Amino acid sequence: SKTYKIAIIPGDGTGPEVIKEGIKIIETAAKKNDFKLDFTDYDLGGQRYLKTGEILPESVIEEFKKFDAMYLGAIGHPDVKPGILEKGILLKLRFELDQYINLRPVKLYPNVETPLKDKKPEDIDMVIVRENTEGLYTGAGGFLKKDTPQEVAIQESINTRFGIERCIRYAFKLTQNRAKNNKLTLCGKTNVLTYASDLWQRTFNAVAKEYPQLKSDYVNVDATCMWFVKNPEWFDVVVTDNLFGDIITDLAAMIQGGMGVAAGGNINPEGVSMFEPMGGSAPKYTGLNIINPIASINAGAMMLEKIGESKAAKDIDNAVIKALESGKIKSMSAGKMGLSTTEVGDLIASFI
Ligand code: IPM
Ligand code: MN
């Protein structure tokens, strides 16, 4: 049977706890579907940085390229200044490994509470495709007249035709392969960002011609936020730039039931991809065995899908749904689940 090499980055805070449950589930699915997973642990994150001063050695980035996928718990530490770990680890990995898609499925599962009144699982089922290597995230810019009253901060958004086009092509392909097989929405700000959003729109319109069977439309980012809350059923796949994507995916995570269930993938379709729960390191819950592992488990399923084990991914998705339908998990929030982190993992495993 086939063996896949997986790099594990448990990371900080509750990262190791949720990754442990994720591993439990993907191992169970692997056994059932007759393939093997070979894990290698990497100690990266705030904890490691505080101890050793090391953030992310270049040699480790090179090592990651040899894996079939990467599985990340969380990076973030309250004692480390904001920006250091984000730029030094997470964004660095995305850029260096050219993980140019940030893929965020947004699906309301049965028995999961959404803050949106009267919205059901069939109303909240979309995927957000966020460009993951350009826009306002490249770090381009600088200060003028630093530390004077006339100081100016310039933060530049870099948008290349190449970067936009590969992202939009990915989104169209994904739309075509979805069960809904319906519509791709471009989210931007053409009424103000007359260079960046204009290039996005021209590229979108050009690629759309190759997919005449799919619907495509455009919504401004502010209106997108509004419609996510009012009419989420209008959306199927949404494609957008890096910062807009960062913002609307947090909003989307909330309407699908919160950070306890939201998973994401940093995808390089031709290379190594990294999968993670969206929730962050949640330091205050560390070591209590009360954090929700479902997001991490969902990220594990996305990872198996990416390496080509679609049946195993589907098995996990079905098991998550059955576990939720059982009514034994009372809430998606840490400490309110009615079960511990490990018990939720065991329950889901029992349905595989
Ligand atoms: C995310 C996170 C990151 C981002 C941070 C931690 C740098 O919020 O994955 O959405 O802004 O991309
Ligand atoms: Mn974010």
From TrEMBL:
Entry annotated with the keyword Ribonucleoprotein: no
Alphabetically ordered keywords of this record: Manganese, Metal-binding, NAD, Oxidoreductase
Residue ranges occupied by any Isopropylmalate dehydrogenase-like domain in the UniProt entry: 5-348
The keyword Manganese belongs to this UniProt entry's keyword annotation: yes
Molecular functions per Gene Ontology: magnesium ion binding; NAD binding; oxidoreductase activity, acting on the CH-OH group of donors, NAD or NADP as acceptor
Cofactor annotation: Mn(2+); Mg(2+)
Domain of life: Bacteria
Entries under SMART domains matching the protein: Iso_dh (SM01329)
InterPro entries: ICDH/IPMDH, IsoCit/isopropylmalate_DH_CS, IsoPropMal-DH-like_dom
PANTHER family: D-MALATE DEHYDROGENASE [DECARBOXYLATING]
Annotated protein name in UniProt: 3-isopropylmalate dehydrogenase
